[in-house]
């Protein structure tokens, strides 16, 4: 996998310059005040640092551990000394589940680090066997299957209150449209800290349990209302 060139000025204005998942856009909810997209996220391999490490060492400590594995800020810390291209987004998965009533959600765990952090490896890595093995035992590699997700996109800085608001809006909108979702969700952030707030891209990912065929039938009914 080759590294993608990018400039500091471009990053400041929101240009990532790195590989991103090849999403398939299934639908866009233009009928909702709280707009969202339904996407098919392709299968991938993720390198993840657990929630326990992220929380115990402080929010943000997982990033340099993962960066060390791929060789972004130092020599690669993997068994083959292979540099791996950085990708976007960085994905965080909370321990907090979505309650039966989203209005009862007390917090997301964002501010206190109760979220695991993962890098999605470049698409050229399709299996665990193809990936360099991390030298740091705190990093776990996993094969993530293709999945349908509802996605809410927003700019600015992430905080507990901002993430909670967008999560609640997405859950309410998908429920109103009749989509079947579970209790899990993820926060995806595409930009480094020095990107200007209004150029930042953040997303809430909410897995959808409907099949693609069922999903299209549900959305067709919603559009016709």
From TrEMBL:
A Pfam match: SOUL
InterPro entries, alphabetized: Reg_factor_effector_dom_sf (IPR011256), SOUL_heme-bd (IPR006917)
SUPFAM superfamilies: Probable bacterial effector-binding domain (SSF55136)
Origin superkingdom: Eukaryota
PANTHER family per UniProt: HEME-BINDING PROTEIN-RELATED, SOUL HEME-BINDING FAMILY PROTEIN
Stated family: Belongs to the HEBP family.
Name of the featured protein: Uncharacterized protein
UniProt source species: Octactis speculum
